[in-house]
Amino acid sequence: MQARFRTAVLPGDGIGVEVMSAALRVLRRLEQDIAGLAFIFEEHSAGANEFLRSGDPLPESVFEACRSVDAVLLGAMGLPDVRWPDGRELTPQIDLRERLDLYCGLRPIRLYSPAHSPLKQPAAGEIDLVIVRESTEGLFSGRLLTSNPDSGTVEDRLRITRRGSERLFRRAFELARTRRRKVTLVDKANVLPSMVFFRTVFDDVARDYPDVATERTYVDAAALFLVQRPQTFDVIVTENMFGDILSDLAAGLVGGMGMAPSADLGDECGVFQPAHGTAPDIAGQGIANPVGMILSAALMLDWLGTPPAVEGGRRIRRGVEAALADPTTATRDLGGTLSTSEMTERILTAVGLAG
Ligand code: ATP
Questions:
Q1: Going by CA atoms, what residue is nearest to atom 20 of ligand 1?
Q2: Span from the CA of 17 to the centroid of ligand 1 (angstroms)
Q3: Cβ of residue 283 lying under 6 Å from some atom of ligand 1
Q4: Ligand 1 contacts CB of residue 92 (under 6 A)
């Protein structure tokens, strides 16, 4: 009898709640189908609605629970009108990332159907890359510093450390070894001293991976190349803010935010959530695309790493691929008419057949 994975479930706000329920349906289905795969789901309240209730978007008890479980599944958090008194948005998902030292943000981008892409000729599977985003320093590192706008000047800070960069690059190279063995560093080393340092550390780490091809690209050119020739990228590794921006751009190449999963990984903990936010414009209507959340659950299974979990991750991906091969399997963001729950049904059927 296999141990059960303790999973903290944080649905959050807006469509986070809707897509979480879809992912839990898929995981429960896999529990039935795969011997030795079992979960204990522990649901917690965090986010903007929790802030309205208790005054704290990430109560200490929830943080402690996230630290103690095997993995955290997160929907999405924050609402545009719910803010701190100084006007900043609540970002408990970023607080969680920083406090758990989840330095490695994985953003896989894969095209499941040519119909999802605004580009002209890509075939399914032809766009298949992973953005590895540094997630604890970079241009986000000064986000909690206070400044006085009355002085007429406000500055942000871009922090790069050797330790933070080295561990990130090692993850990127290890990942590339499981894929097409190519890593592209995205930086701005032609302008910013922090980025010159970032590139130096990259070059040092690259020497330990002679079997992996490397290239170095400035972030502005990377944005252009992602649109012109996305199929040439395998693993992209980059600074926090650059990764934030490029992963939305890359999601746009494969159908939009609803199609993009993510994993935030440290050495001990992992948080798995879709790349999208709470989408207040469509929340409550039952039309959110659940694919990004369901694929995030697959990333969680990969990371849990036991043979039954890895098998579960494989079945989810095969199921999503098979379901999306039918052009009528599409929510509105993909040009279709299916509701969240109808889309989930199609994926559940395909996941069942993927056994
Ligand atoms: P954040 O700042 O938290 O990233 P945001 O408001 O910038 O949030 P999203 O909430 O991701 O961005 O929404 C961006 C757009 O993508 C919105 O038009 C939203 O409706 C759409 N969108 C996001 N997620 C989905 C989804 N799962 N299904 C369909 N549309 C989505």
A1: 279
A2: 14
A3: no
A4: no
Q: Which residues, other chains included, contact 54 with Cβ-Cβ below 8 Å and sequence gap of 6+?
A: none
The CATH T-level fold of domain 104-143+157-265 is Isopropylmalate Dehydrogenase (3.40.718)
Q: Is 298 in the pocket of ligand 1 (CB under 6 A)?
A: no
Nearest CA to ligand 1 atom 5: 277
Contact 329, 343 (CB under 8 A): yes
Where do the CATH 3.40.718.10 domains begin and end in the chain? 1-101+269-355, 104-143+157-265
Best residue among 19, 94, 276 to mutate for probing ligand 1, ranked by most atoms within 8 Å of CB? 276
pLDDT digits (tens, 9 = 90+) for 248-262: 999 999 999 999 999
pLDDT of 143? 80
Is the whole model's pTM more than 0.85, yes or no?
yes
Look up residue 185 and give its two tokens. Answer: 């560093």
Rounded to the nearest whole angstrom, what is the distance from the C-alpha of residue 276 to the centroid of ligand 1?
5
Measured CA to CA, the distance from residue 227 to residue 231 in angstroms comes to 10
Joined tokens for residue 43: 């649901």
CA pair distance 330, 263, nearest whole angstrom: 24
Query: In CATH, what is the architecture of 1-101+269-355?
Result: 3-Layer(aba) Sandwich (3.40)
pLDDT tens track for 56-75: 999 999 999 999 999 999 99
Distance CA 296, CA 290 (A): 10
